[in-house]
Design brief:
The complex is a heterodimer. Chain A is built from no helices and 11 strands. By secondary structure, chain A is mainly beta. The termini of chain A are far apart. Chain B is mainly beta. Chain B contains no helices and 11 strands. The interface between A and B is medium-sized, with 23 and 21 residues.
Chain lengths: ~110, ~110
């Protein structure tokens, strides 16, 4: 199993501020996914990035896949309380499996 | 559209008792199915995955087992629960790399 490290582990910011979450590995992934999970619920897929250097935008969320396909970042602009949750990155291993990072808990205070 | 169900939603069981968690998927055929366990606020640990009936792979040796009696049904079992089996159990399905999660089962072993 390939290891994915997420940083920071916890992030607490005021509404309207920006934040960035990082996902790093020493291994190359064919693609990488970001999920958001709210307490007591299952993770929900936000985006899949496939190409090295790729940037995808989802409203106020910007996802970037590193050129070497070993790392990724999630940037949220003007965060809102609804952005609160556990953000998980996951790298695709082989044909069927994902390797998940430990997650970043984001709290946006109103 | 596809939906995934898990039950029960919560479960409190004494140490040494058996366990059966059920997951069913609707709206798709021959999905890949997964069982994960999640510690509070942390990443997902893959327990089992199945790419078809009678094709189940175990990722972590422990006192849990999985079965797939029907194409869209995945069951997680134990003959004797340990305290360390407490956690949030998530079932997921996929037809490619992207996984879609159920609502989860909160298991507390007392």
């Amino acid at each position: 199993t390939q290891l994915l490290e997420q940083s920071p582990q916890f992030l607490s910011i005021q509404e309207g501020e920006n934040l960035t979450v990082y996902c790093n590995s020493s291994s190359v992934f064919s693609s990488l996914q970001w999920y958001r999970q709210e307490p007591g619920e299952g993770p929900v897929l936000l985006v899949t990035v496939v190409t090295g250097g790729e940037v995808k935008k989802l409203k106020r969320l910007t996802f970037q896949f590193g050129d070497a396909r070993k790392d990724s970042s999630l940037h949220i602009t003007a965060a809102q309380p609804g952005d609160t949750g556990l953000y998980l990155c996951a790298g695709v291993e082989g044909d069927y499996k994902l390797s998940f990072g430990a997650g970043t808990t984001v709290t946006v205070r109103a | 559209s596809q939906t995934i169900h898990q039950w029960p939603a919560t479960l409190v069981q004494p140490v040494g008792s058996p366990l059966s968690l059920e997951c069913t998927v609707e709206g798709t055929s021959n999905p890949n199915l997964y069982w994960y366990r999640q510690a509070a606020g942390r990443g997902l640990q893959l327990l089992f995955y199945s790419i078809g009936i009678d094709q189940i792979s175990s990722e972590v040796p422990q006192n849990l087992s999985a079965s797939r009696p029907q194409d869209r049904q995945f069951i997680l079992s134990s003959k004797k629960l340990l305290l360390s089996d407490s956690g949030f159990y998530l079932c997921a399905w996929s037809s490619s790399y992207e996984q879609y999660f159920g609502p989860g089962t909160r298991l507390t072993v007392t």
